[in-house]
Design brief:
- The chain is built from eight helices and eleven strands.
- It has 243 residues and is of the alpha+beta class.
- The chain folds into two domains: 93 residues, no CATH class; 136 residues, 3-Layer(aba) Sandwich (Aminopeptidase).
- Strands 1-2-3-4-11-5-10-9-8-7-6 form an eleven-stranded mixed sheet, with helices on both faces.
Amino acid sequence: MTAPDETRLLAALEATWPPAAIDETSAPGWRLRDGAGAGKRVDSARSLGASDFEAAAAAMRAAGRRPLIQVASDPDLDARLDAAGWEIVDPTLLLAAPVAKLVDMEAPRGVKSVLVRTRLALLDEIWDAGGIGPARRALMDRCALPKATIMTRTDDIVGGLSYVAVDGDVAMIHAVEVRPEARRRGVARAGLSAAARFAAENGAQWLALAVTEANAPARALYHSAGMENVGRYHYRLAPKQGR
């Protein structure tokens, strides 16, 4: 079974974490995303084959935003942006593993994950504490694909949360949050296995996620669970003045 490539995972990433609006007319050859304050991934431009970034930058400025471009495997575009002084932001890895490899991971004793399909105030409070505020939760509400919130309990407390949605053969995990008092107790691994089970129940063959290169503990966890690097991307942020 061949792993999904970078292009496929980027498409699944956007489908399962949808921006508030998409504009492909203001700058032909570019996909301009408006995240309504929900973060860089949904508030950046992505090339649809164009390498001249001026039109995309102008359109984003006209909308009152500092231009931000997501760059994956496009060394020519990246070099052009670098030469124009655009700053690299958040180098990120795309990881994936076969669902079948993750569904049977055993959780430590006393750790259990369940699917939550209704909004609970306690869960919102946990996400708020982890920086996953109302704008990002609105993305979860907006997604029309099969989806669920995964709640993991340990020692009779809610130890962690994550969100998973299925886009065809790929299920993507987002918004992973483990409370400080529940770390190093197997909460994240239990949530990963629960996400894999949800993926399998909804026909997905692959479980994937995006993690910043700077997040070494998370990368170590995911690699230890058998997830492998499939692709990468970063952002380029325009200088405050000029291009």
